[in-house]
TrEMBL record:
GO terms for biological process: cell wall organization. This is Glutathione S-transferase omega-like 2. Belongs to the GST superfamily. Omega family. GO terms for cellular component: cytoplasm.
Amino acid sequence: MLRSHRPVLSSLYYSSPSRGSQIAYYRIVLISRQLLSGSAMSSQQKQGEILKWASTDGEFRRRPSSYRSFISREPGAQYPPEKGRYHLYISWACPWAHRTAIVRKLKGLEGIIDLSVVDWYLGEMGWKFSTPEETPGSTIDPVHNSSYLRELYFRMNPGHDGRFTVPVLWDKKTDTLVNNESSEIIRMFNEEFDDLVDDKFKGVTFYPKSLRKDIDELNEWVYDTVNNGVYKAGFATKQEVYESHVVTLFKSLDRLEDILAKSTGPYLFGDVLTEADIRLYTTIIRFDPVYVQHFKCNIGMIRQNYPQLHKWLRHLYWEIPEFKDTTNFEHIKKHYTKSHRQINPFGITPVGPLPDIEPK
Ligand SMILES: N[C@@H](CCC(=O)N[C@@H](CS)C(=O)NCC(=O)O)C(=O)O
């Protein structure tokens, strides 16, 4: 069977990931600068669509989500929890939307909040809806029979001038977009529907009071340098911008490796599965199959260089069905490699590494 190999730079950097030193990082940066100081840079003059993602300084900046209302159990809330009232739109490919799909399942909300899944292909018109026959794993929009996700944004606000992102949490009763920020949607799912879910899900929380400060603290740097870090490296259109983000990303992976080594396990905070694990999972599960090659996050691989993260990842995927059942490698791999033509002009999806995730 095909297996991936140790990264070329491993001899410079990895005897053990936790021992990665600043000096080694700078050696990597120095060598790559020397390699790239010549004519290779001129290819950057070709300005493709990717510059819609990155600014002229070469930096990708994620725009804040536009709709931030809350479903709440508080009396008189504008959006109270109700069975069948809300509809969740996701992409199996998108790490942010993936968080919401996991929590929806873990909290037993499948019979309470319906789900639509867009096609993995993101084109000029944004996310589109396909039938499962056209694209396995996708669904139509049963609420409005839209062709594209953008139609929902314009229905909400005809003047919408932001991007058309998933996830989208839609209120069928008032025909409005409640929220399109995954970190907030998972908080709503975590507790606001507890009066409606089966008894076994009531009180199950991924944001326990005793750990909130620690979770918030970890989320903050993981969001910036890992979840969003892979995009900042991958969408960068200047060499030095890419290098700075990819090095920061791998420093954070080292930090996570240390946290897991010190944790009593199997999670980031010992034996308590929290939203910090869920938010990290959706990036790490995509790391080896996509981010290593497509976003050039290739200083190392999870499976080869991060034994603790690798163990943690396989535990979530193989032991907790809600993680595996919401992980669609076909959508993930095809979306990135066939939608970002500025990065991958021929849209060839690499076969490896095989397997997508290693066995337990
Ligand atoms: N802050 C948002 C980010 C969502 C996001 O960026 N989604 C991407 C997919 S991974 C998207 O829909 N992009 C489409 C576009 O920007 O056109 C969240 O966490 O919910």
